[in-house]
Amino acid sequence: MKIGALEAGGTKMVCAVGQEDGTILEQISIPTTTPEETIPRILSYFRGKEIEALGVAAFGPVDVKPDSPSYGHILDTPKVAWRHCDLLGQLKSALPIPMGLDTDVNGSCLGEMTYGCAKGLDSVIYITIGTGVGVGVCSGGKLVHGMLHPEGGHILLTRHPQDPKGGICPYHKNCLEGFACGPSIEARWGKKAADLKDAPLVWEIESYYIAQALTDYIMILSPQKIILGGGVMHQEQLFPLIRSKVKEFIGGYLNTPELNDLDNYIVPASLGGDQGIMGCIKLGLDALC
Ligand code: ADP
Ligand code: ZN
């Protein structure tokens, strides 16, 4: 059985055809420009591929509540051309197959839970630290939406005493995304994050922010595993720094087998960058039932 997968990102649209076991048979990437230009290109890719369903994981904010009048619409995004675009509706009117939709980060979380390092677990969070920071949450086997969907990148944190710049989020002076996303690192140090590998203070500050956030997620959501992806997490030296600070911030208050094995609790994404598109395959499969 062939399933279509669309990872709808702010810079590119990854379109793929995959199978139930997560195998990706083929995939292409289309730059995200305007809906008028981009959606027809997505549709022309999927037409004639004999897919039985399509799973879509979209950048947000996006309406993921099936009973809402604006289900499948992109909401008030800074990407003006996509504001209030009925993404799912346009796909549905051209492709008469079942479709599943969730946020990009919930998609990656689902990919890891179905095909990756979080198989068999039911409460997992997936955090991407890249151009922005997003958090996908699965709790008790359900991807969490709530009133809209979690915006875990914008939780408020304490500024590091040696942070010379602070946060760059236009909405919040001291949120995780503003402090820790790739562009924030670049604004703070005047160099690309990828070129700062040998500057220890950069990663000391970065890990301080990420560890504060993880501690809060742990206290509120009690996840069984925390997966970290996105461009910034290519800096592998972050993992031990984050783990030791999480341990410090929890302060011995919790004592679980998971927290006593932090190397297997706070982990990198395991699917080599395909966690998002593989999550879309699962969203498509779930739309069939
Ligand atoms: P997006 O978030 O747009 O989907 P990415 O997850 O690739 O894309 O994140 C891009 C961000 O990650 C950029 O700000 C970039 O500076 C940063 N980045 C990419 N590669 C690295 C790296 N090797 N080390 C540190 N930061 C990186
Ligand atoms: Zn913010």
From TrEMBL:
Its EC number is 2.7.1.4. It comes from the Bacteria. The keyword ATP-binding applies. Coiled coil: none annotated. One of its GO terms (molecular function) is fructokinase activity. Its cofactor is Mg(2+). It holds the Pfam family ROK. It catalyses: D-fructose + ATP = D-fructose 6-phosphate + ADP + H(+). Keywords: ATP-binding, Carbohydrate metabolism, Kinase, Magnesium, Metal-binding, Nucleotide-binding, Transferase, Zinc. PROSITE patterns: ROK (PS01125). InterPro entries: ATPase_NBD, Carb_Metab_Reg_Kinase/Isom, ROK, ROK_cs. Belongs to the ROK (NagC/XylR) family. PANTHER family: FRUCTOKINASE, TRANSCRIPTIONAL REPRESSOR MPRA. This is fructokinase. It comes from Candidatus Enterocloster faecavium.
